Amino acid sequence: MIDRSVGENIGSGKVNFNIQYRDLLSDQGLCIHVFGQGSDPDEELLRFDCFDHQPHYHYGPEKENKRLMLDKTTEGDSLDWVLAQLKSRFPEMLERAGYEDFAKHVSSTDMSEDIEELSKKSYQMSQEGRRTVIHDRGDVILEAGSIKFGVEYRHLSADEGVAIHVLGDVNGDEVELLTFDCFKNSPHYHYGPRAGNQRLYLDTTAYPDSLRWALNVLKGGKLGSMLSRAGYSDHANGLNPAVLSDTLNKLEEVAVGMDRENNK
Length: 264
What we know:
By secondary structure, this protein is an alpha+beta fold.
């Protein structure tokens, strides 16, 4: 059940909306819930999850819950797409979800003001709600051509370990492109901490040594594809294999030494 005390409620008619910003760690984005009055609580008729990485939408979340994925390559920005459908195909979508009465209501009701308010507040919340993190750049900085590596040992209240920050210049500013938090209890890594901030956690059963895993990924040639996935293709294309190889050997020496020094 959707908690309507969270986010913003828009409209007070027979069909109305609730918007919330959700951070799932591995994905984030604005959720638009479409409700129909007639039961207590109101029934959710449609749901649009405008996430960064796996945008999708649901027909009849409380019925068959037909879920369809959105292709960002063909459709572009998911929030733009959703708002366009609500302006042009709203009754048809409600009918497909199995709500003919609500579809007829929307067809015969001017909902332009509600949808305009929904549009304005959705864009505002999608910007203000974005979760990003800013880490320290590291105690040791290693140059590697188009990027740098920052290495530090982090002590948190409930965890600790080596952190490897991949840094690069974006529009004249140093930006954290990737981060590997090789912690003892909850090791994870970030794609674009200052942008999408997609966080993925490692299975410590499959990978008991998260630092070794991170170093193997970096030395195994995955850095370029990870930078591209994070949205930094220019930095990926600018990698110099020879320079990178030498720097990664130094990185391994520094990171392993730092881990050993802090775990005597």
